[in-house]
DNA sequence: TCTCCAATCGAAAGCGCTTTACATGTGTAA
DNA sequence: TTACACATGTAAAGCGCTTTCGATTGGAGA
């Protein structure tokens, strides 16, 4: 391995000067040039561990994924958020460290992150206990789509999303509107349901108990089951607002299996705007979450925290706007 | 920060002994116990940079994602593969480092990985130049779904996959079978097309030029366009084998838009078995790739390389089996 | 009691870098 | 010519850990 000593010798300067030259500290042009030449010639690559040890700065951000459904990185929503996060963070030369997590979101994970010396932590898990937050530790942290005591959370404007969905349905003549809720232990699920009820009330529409069904963790199976319950009702809704696209797609499918037409008999509005939403039949009208922007905002907040380290009053929460994407799954009632 | 010195002092031993105790080297039971107690009491966490510096082992594996379509981590196929990889790697206490890649898959990326001192590299990119492979460097590397000169690649058995698809179609009475190919600069795209032709020949069926259309990078748009070309033919195929599920779903959609019935008028077989394959209408018959297993195999190969460092003859290539998943998109011809 | 050996522990060097505090050299003003 | 300020470079310490090799100790055997 070629070290700073080799460069120093080759260039005829001390290692201190080499270090300065490489870190853009004050050295003469001549020295800098000679050193850079040597670096080039010897194919020198600085050792990040040594640098981290000396500076106490790792240029790594720890990523903690929840275990929801055990899919981790492959989660359709979170992976896009992280992609947005990464795009921003790498502009500032941070790498992302995905740590082992057979330990869960607990003390062990935090200890491991501490061990790794990450400069910041981004937590991507929508439910479960917030053990790390409780530790009130020293590492700057940002949360995505999850409530927390600590400042630094980014999430979609779920309330407005629900409102957009309900209003769109109402504008199309629907009054018998059901809601397939997301898991009621998740922040998003709770907020969307809350938004649904609020929007219905604002429209002067009743929120019927039997039109409120829990679809669980946003899965196909959950959406299917929830829809079956709705279909089994004597007085079926004419439209259903579903708290997640995956559930919505499953719901549409089972509706068709029951011999009903979508959207003529039952209309659907989803939430997320996953890639396939526009490719199913009928194309799904949905509330789009800007995953990339969520990730980017989280990165901005975290980098700010890292750079100011509590000196300034940090951003508390950041709500990212959502939008209604009209496609073909909503029918206009006569 | 509490260091090994604090532990040493607290426990009444030297730092050397502390280090040994923590690394399960030979120390007396008594010493070990006292040291462990001190660790507990002072909330000591070892510093990985220091350890890495001293041992030249980072316990990190670098992950290089391709930029195909700019989706990176959120790629529906690769993210699942990486998830499988991670599950295995973390059993052995490795963390995954996703490095910045505004640099692409070139020398710069490799330099950065070297800088980080990762113990191994997993390359997840299906096409483009293999700059890193060319460098014939020292860091153990494994490739996923991509040909390489270096030993250490994992990929699905694309040839057999194509054969399964074609045979299934033939068994259902189809003879006019088209193929929407994946991008012909990707390994998978090439192999699947090759397998298609081979299987057709084996069945004694002609491979008609106009039944072979390129869908590009496995995207919705590509699948749609390719299908339109097929639909525009005077003599349409009765079945099409599509090299990717996303393209297949787009193809089915446009077929229905053209007023044809799926699968009665045209049958479809996809490739991948993405999550939504079974939730579209009709549910897509497809060739399943075992993404988790691919990732796991890659991890096994890489860890083996890391641990043997060229001393043994390493595994060259590893082909992961695929399977036919029968659903509702194939119609039996009378 | 003395010798010898095995078990146990510790001093110190070293991993590759940054940074402080000081030494040297150069040019400028008096 | 002398004094001084500034620019430039360096020695050395330190970041937190591992590991080698020698020192110390205690017990077994004679």
Summarize the structure.
The structure is a homodimer of 334-residue chains. Chain A is α/β, with parallel strands linked by helices and 334 residues long. Chain A is built from 12 helices and 12 strands.
Task: Note the overall shape of chain A.
Answer: elongated
Strand order of the largest sheet of chain A: 2-1-3-4-5-11
Quick one: CATH class of the largest domain in chain A?
Answer: Alpha Beta
Classified in CATH, the superfamily of the largest domain in chain A is Response regulator
* Count of discrete structural domains of chain A: 3
Which regions of chain A have little confidence, pLDDT < 50, spanning 5+ residues?
none
Number of strands of chain A: 12
- Structural class given helices, strands, pairing of chain A? alpha/beta
What is the mean pLDDT of chain A? 91
End-to-end separation of chain A: 77 Å
Descriptive report:
The structure is a homodimer of 334-residue chains. The first copy, chain A, is an alpha/beta fold and 334 residues long. Chain A has three domains: 4-46, 434 Repressor (Amino-terminal Domain) (Orthogonal Bundle); 60-155 and 292-320, Rossmann fold; 158-289, Rossmann fold, CATH 3.40.50. The first copy, chain A, has twelve helices and twelve strands. Chain A has helices at 4-11, 15-22, 29-42, 48-55, 76-89, 107-116, 131-134, 158-171, 187-202, 220-231, 245-257, 291-308, and strands at residues 60-65, 95-98, 120-124, 141-144, 153-156, 177-181, 212-214, 239-242, 267-272, 285-289, 317-320, 322-325. The first copy, chain A, has a six-stranded parallel sheet, with helices on one face. The radius of gyration of chain A is 26 Å and the shape is elongated. Chain A starts with a helix and ends in a 9-residue tail after the last strand. The relative contact order of chain A is 0.12. The model of chain A has no long low-confidence stretch (mean pLDDT 91). At the A-B interface, helix 4, helix 5, strand 2, helix 6 and helix 11 of A face helix 4, helix 5, strand 2, helix 6 and helix 11 of B. Strand 2 of chain A pairs antiparallel with strand 2 of chain B, so a sheet runs across the interface. The structure holds a DNA duplex (30 and 30 nucleotides).
